[in-house]
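Before surveying the methods themselves, we first show a specimen of the format, giving the amino acid sequence and backbone structure tokens:

:::
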Amino acid sequence: MLKAKTALVTGSTSGIGLGVAKCLAAQGANVVLNGFGDAEGPQAEVAAAGAAHGVKVGYHGADMSKPAEIEAMMAYAAKEFGGVDILVNNAGIQHVANVEDFPVEKWDAIIAINLSSAFHTMRLALPAMRAKNWGRIVNIASAHGLVASAQKSAYVAAKHGIVGLTKSAALETATTGVTVNAICPGWVLTPLVQKQIDARAAAGGQPVDEAKRQLLAEKQPSLQFTTPEQLGELTVFLCSPAGANIKGVAWAVDGGWTAQ
């Protein structure tokens, strides 16, 4: 379905981003990965997912807090892949503290990586998408783009910002073949969340499964984690012809979290 398209997924060497990248590759899209840590393993996984289509997989290690590195990554995608047809902004970090105790450098880093990076990739991708009259931008926001939690001020501010940025860009491109939407996951069992669960289990002296149940019970009525694959399949849907007139949506995939 996505043969000859190129997808760039930020923060895609693990977790949600990797799941999305694999789903796009399985539909025939070439993929540019981005993120910290091991790149060879994720590249091999994405290549395997798209093996039936002979997809091309690349990697750029841009630090998403640095606009110049983002520009270099987008230039790499243009040179090696002919541009970006599908842009998935997923890169994100987290820090937890009350507002008055929040380290200023942590605030700046979260806003830069979770919000400003999406502005930079979008401003660089949109001209070519407009020229082709086809493009898909999917911003991975969060349930925290729709509602708040205590001690997550920077993350909540950034994710609310992503939802707003998505809506504005969707209106600017409304009469074109470009769509801009946000996906708002609740709890997804990523390596990052597993660390929170392990810490909770250790602090409470309880089994990991009980710590998982408690974490989910606080916010997510389904008591089920969303999977990276489910978010990937939703991204694929938004890239399909069925998604052509979906513009500016903040799509909750949160087991009922924001329905409460």
In short: Strands lie at 6-9, 30-34, 57-60, 86-89, 135-140, 178-185, 250-253.
